[in-house]
Design a protein that fits this description.
The chain is α/β, with parallel strands linked by helices. It is built from ten helices and eight strands. The chain folds into two domains: 160 residues, 3-Layer(aba) Sandwich (Rossmann fold), CATH 3.40.50; 65 residues.
Length: 255
């Protein structure tokens, strides 16, 4: 039985039609006067802080606390603006999956495990009316390493539940090999979804607990049921043919 369920954001819950990447580019273009700064940078599964650091270093911008603060202040502005001009959406099955989690006899704590900075995560999820569903989380401005973010998310889940959580009681849901890796770092189970840049076959190569095309393929009660039929059903999901990637403030939570 899972007591803590942690979601990645981009490529897992939502796609923003590239608004986040474009917001990064706009900050570098308008404030730091560097056009096309994001060209050749891989964003999938990365933390916002590590991405900013890579681009700073590449263009010889000092990686000072002040520059990071300026960058993310400007980023929040551009992100909110660009989201109003995009055709982003919530991925198939997300609403139902969250609803089914809430309807369980013993619902788990639902949280976020993301490389987004906290304000960026909030801007994105509020845009899609998802923010209020998450009670806790850990973010890319708190730790630069995804494994450390996972450990922080686990610690916060423990505090909310008021007891220790065994590794097998934690489920991490994400769309990249880095999500699988950070889940493994805290001993969590992993549900990998091929709604981002990776196919089911590519995700399975990194040995998640389960891999599916999208959350519409999963029934929460089966996932949570501790029985052989449930495991068999989930193993059938693992055997499904590889799918291509899908097309595309403070809240009430205790972060």
């Amino acid at each position: 039985m899972f007591r803590l369920v942690l979601f990645d954001i981009d490529g897992t819950l939502i796609h923003t039609d590239g608004a986040g990447i474009r917001a990064f580019g706009k900050v570098f273009e308008t404030y730091f006067k560097i056009p096309s700064a994001t060209r050749g940078v891989s964003f999938a599964g990365r933390t916002d802080t590590s991405l900013a650091r890579e681009i700073f270093t590449r263009h010889l911008i000092p990686t000072t606390t002040e520059n990071f603060a300026i960058f993310f202040e400007q980023y929040a502005f551009w992100l909110a603006h660009l989201l109003t001009q995009t055709r982003g959406d919530i991925y198939p099955g997300v609403w139902r999956f969250i609803y089914e989690l809430q309807r369980l006899p013993e619902p788990p704590v639902i949280g976020l495990l993301t490389g987004n900075v906290r304000l960026g995560a909030e801007i994105k999820l509020r845009h899609f009316n998802l923010w209020e569903f998450f009670l806790t989380g850990a973010f890319g401005d708190e730790r630069e390493d995804r494994r450390q973010i996972a450990a922080l998310a686990r610690e916060r889940g423990v505090r909310i539940l008021g007891r220790n959580i065994r590794p097998e009681e934690i489920l991490v849901i994400g769309d990249t090999p880095l999500d699988i890796d950070c889940a493994r770092a805290i001993g969590a189970q992993t549900l990998a979804v091929a709604t981002g840049d990776y196919t089911v076959a590519e995700l399975k190569a990194h040995q998640p607990t389960w891999a599916v095309p999208n959350l519409d393929q999963v029934r929460v009660r089966e996932l949570f049921r501790d029985s052989a039929p449930a495991v068999a059903g989930l193993m059938r999901m693992l055997a499904m043919p590889a799918a291509t990637s899908a097309p595309g403030t403070a809240g009430a939570g205790r972060f």
